[in-house]
Amino acid sequence: MAAPKKGRQGTQGKPGRTLALILIAIVALTGGMFASGHTTPRLGIDLAGGTSITLQAKNEPGQKNAINKTNMDTAVDIMNRRVNGLGVSEAEVQTQGNSNIIVNIPKGTNSEQAREQVGTTAKLYFRPVLVTEVTGADAATPSPSASGGSSASPSASAKESEKATSSSPSASATSQGRAVTDALKADPTPSGSSTGSESAASPSASASTDPATAKLQAQYTALDCSKKTVRAKAGDGVKAGDPTVACGQNSQGQWQKYILGPAEVEGTDVDKASAVFDTQGAAGWKVTMDFTDKGGKKFASITGKLAQNQSPQNQFAIVLDGEVVSDPYVSQALTGGTAEISGSFDQQEAQDLANMLSYGALPLTFTEASVTTVTAALGGEQLEAGLIAGAIGLALVIIYLVVYYRGLSLIAIASLLVSAVMTYVIMSLLGPTIGFALNLPAVCGAIVAIGITADSFIVFFERIRDEIREGRRMRPAVERAWPRARRTILVSDFVSFLAAAVLFIVTVGKVQGFAFTLGLTTVLDVVVVFFFTKPLMTLLARRKFFADGHSWSGLDPKRLGVQPPLRRTRRASAPVDTKEA
């Protein structure tokens, strides 16, 4: 007898504890929302306005017909992943015409950061350092430190570079084995003077050398990295296989100029990049890179060659879009297949750089054609109309529940309120967490979810009514109805979630906002029904109002058509013979 009783207890569970659990979760989420300072969902560009950027593609020197549909589509895909990695931040990237890309960034997003993300080509090269010096400074200072693998060391100081660059060029040419240093054999290597005016050979000497070498030396002599316009044009149009000049900023905030050899490793050889906080050396953010198998071999080869040279020819420059972001030196071949970029990065800068390196370089170079501000006037009117439609729909659902289910409608309304609170809080938290932005299609998804949630309540209530029609009392009717209703609710919600997931995967732009919201509210429907509606129904079933089937409870046996059990008439028994008895 004890076993059935225990089983009955197990089916009913502990509804009070379950209700307390979900209420604690709601309080915790709400507290997190207020603690984060994001008390409202982040709105999309159609509801809050934002910035629209027009980027125009241009051919690199020596390229022909590079601006084509394939490259433009690739650029759109990379830009979209940079600013909209999860597809829900509502940043739109689309082509316009044959050579333009339009990027719409909603208000609330760091537009300057986003402009750098979408417009930066992110072409990464590892080039050997041939000559370097600090420009516009009397005293030599160290360049920013970086390392490749665990055995790399901080870069050499500018004074050491000065000593090395004043050495014989033929020695460095032999050790490097590069075309540019071979060309420098005929002319003295630029000295490492602090002013830069004496760092290159005289014009008369340069004239007697190879024209390419003389041109490179002339560019290096004239290069003033303290000027932004000069830095932007340094090395412009140079191919990966050619030597070039470049600029970079050291840890002291001073600009250095470089003569760099041909690229040995490219950004396409990087498999993955991530931003991490350096707790071992000087505290700060750095970017770690994992090379592909091919890239790891290239990196081991170039670091092995550089380790045999004197400073600065034992340094390699990590060049991103023509600017040196780090110039570490190596003392041995780095064969671990990893490298690090460190310097004066903050967290956001390190994450942005890792993001660009991970998603790859753009196949084309883009310039900003225009930047305009988008207002939210039209979207505000559409939102108002959508909210009115949603309010009307919700009111009709509530009226239907009250008229048809009477007392049970209180459970349904309470469940809808819990679902609405959880949806609002989670959407507010997803804004700063994953960049989720609420747009008009997302609002439509939330309105559609009202019907999905109400449908779950109706399924449960009807199962309970079916059990009462079969003559069961309220409490056992609830427990017997739940397993049947649970299967139906799970199947229904699974189909809705599957449709939302497929829609999210196969679409782009604003439609993804609709799919994401629909999927989110479908999951919350399951949570609310399991952890709030069912426990609340179990508790109320113990109350006299529902247990006795009050006429306003929605479970009145008479209204449900329950017939009282018919009394069986006893058949007349045959007379008993007392004698025989």
Low confidence ranges: 1-11, 137-208
Kindly name the structural category.
Answer: alpha+beta
Largest sheet: 5 strands, mixed, barrel
Helix content: 40-55%
Gross morphology? elongated
The average pLDDT is 75
Radius of gyration: 36 Å
Number of helical runs? Answer: 19
With strands numbered from the N-terminus, the spatial order across the biggest sheet is 4-6-5-11-10
**Strand percent estimate:** 15-25%
First-to-last CA distance: 39 Å
Count of β-strands = 13
Kindly describe this structure.
By secondary structure, the chain is an alpha+beta fold. 49% of the residues lie in helices and 15% in strands. The chain is built from 19 helices and 13 strands. Strands 4-6-5-11-10 form a five-stranded mixed β-barrel. The chain has a four-stranded antiparallel sheet with strand order 2-3-1-13. Strand 5 and strand 6 (255-260) form a beta hairpin. Helix 16 (440-469) runs parallel beside helix 18. The protein starts with a helix and ends in a 34-residue tail after the last helix. The model is unreliable at 1-11 and 137-208 (pLDDT under 50).
Structure in a nutshell:
By secondary structure, this protein is an alpha+beta fold.
Any descriptors?
alpha+beta, 581 residues, 5-stranded mixed β-barrel, 4-stranded antiparallel β-sheet, disordered N terminus
